[in-house]
DNA sequence: CTAGGGTTAG
């Protein structure tokens, strides 16, 4: 074997296992040995850097080359794509046209994938037409990529059509179309195709079984999933060595909320990979066992398996959901040290984490610095602005993203609409709502209408809101009726309220939240008998609402509180400081219990609980005990799984005034920033 | 030498 071939071989294994440091060493050796101008070696270098999420270094190699072929171009595109930078790949594709290099099936395939990544069907269709004209469409790799591209662009009909007319269908074509149906939520169609392919003599591989299992988890079809699990064993695919299938199986059990079974499968896997670890970590986090989830992440890192963008985004989103500021910062600083930390999806989850933890400035700074922003990046930031009460900023960003040719999707519209309605920007709301209805790329969803119902509801236009629901071209969901019911409550409209309540119980009669809301409406109107009746039905049905829980992070440790909780070691001091604060507020501004506030809210907390100390108050108390009493100290940040109660809201407002401190409370709905006796939510929450 | 299907973020 010639010497250059040995280098090539080494580089390819670095590519395969994403070994960046070794790759760099070989790169240095290659230069030293005088192979720096070799075409194939340079192509391998580009590929290696790309696979290691370092397309910046791949680009350096590419730029220095005197002679480039189609492989050089395609490998560079692949590298950009790896990092989530689909646009860079496509712009290279257009640049190829002005060189003497002709794209081949690999080039088309890579860029079809890029189009799928961007999710813009028009882009992909253009490329599809080009494939058709150049005859590349018939090549299986390209055809399969076209199926996948349409699937990612949510064009399942086009994907199916491509599959139907393909002259050379292979296993991957079947896998692609099955995955497409699964992705689209048509799990039963996937199971049907799974059967048909076997009838046609195609042998499913781990990908097929993986997609089919995923279809089962989407359908919540635990039984069918278990059947596949069983047939895996009888067909001779032992879980222990079939890492990919096993990971899908872990995912199935996680989605079906069978964590013990998931863990059992996970434990059986001999060579766990990133996907297996990601699936189980997400599983624990979803069940609320974040300690175990973070512990598994630590164990995962100790294995030395390469941490990729997927697992990092997942971990970061756990930190965001539980508002673990310190842990989130730690993971963030960890992402900076590894190449896949540059991936767009990781950066998106970092921004989201800072926003959900209430650190708006950090989020803004990081967002600005992001070299590549996709539609998710913008949407995250718009959502964050909305939740923090910065409606104007949200709109500004929405306009800015479009001026940069980023196409908003339905989630983006949802973000901007909810930002407008939450911050009372009435005209802007309607403007963007009609923008949405006139945008041919967007299928309006019930959630969009719900934003408008919320807006009308806030303004007290309850009849109009109800009309909107009844006349929209979509089936109303429980959620949109809940929005309207909430508005009826604020405006104390018993007539529409009880009507909507009746509808709600018909369509969603097993959700405790509905009963609590309805009974509160009756309670506030003094209709005690009706109130009792609703509570009784709830009791008979055995429904219990979610317990209110608040938490605060102090010195990287999270302290949880339930209402009336006395389990915290500092309970006595917490009670003491809360009493002291109440006295102080009474003296200085007349705050006290028994005062009926304009928006007295017992919606999420039952009557018994409201007599005890609410969880958010306890968490605030701990924050005060742990150094929060000094003036000019850090902002106190508290989090609650439900909505903050009106009484506590008033209490914190007072605190912010007498202590001259800032408090930020994230509840299930939005952020409340209290400063000098005023809350950013403007009392409507 | 480059590629296609499975896990992630709003």
From TrEMBL:
InterPro entries: DYW_dom, E_motif, PPR_At4g14850-like_plant, PPR_rpt, TPR-like_helical_dom_sf. Keywords: Repeat. Transmembrane segments: none annotated. One of its GO terms (molecular function) is RNA binding. Gene3D superfamilies: Tetratricopeptide repeat domain. It comes from the Eukaryota. GO terms for biological process: RNA modification. PPR repeats lie at residues 69-103, 170-204, 273-307, 343-373, 374-408. The keyword Repeat applies. Residues 590-685 form the DYW domain. This is DYW domain-containing protein. It comes from Tetracentron sinense (Spur-leaf).
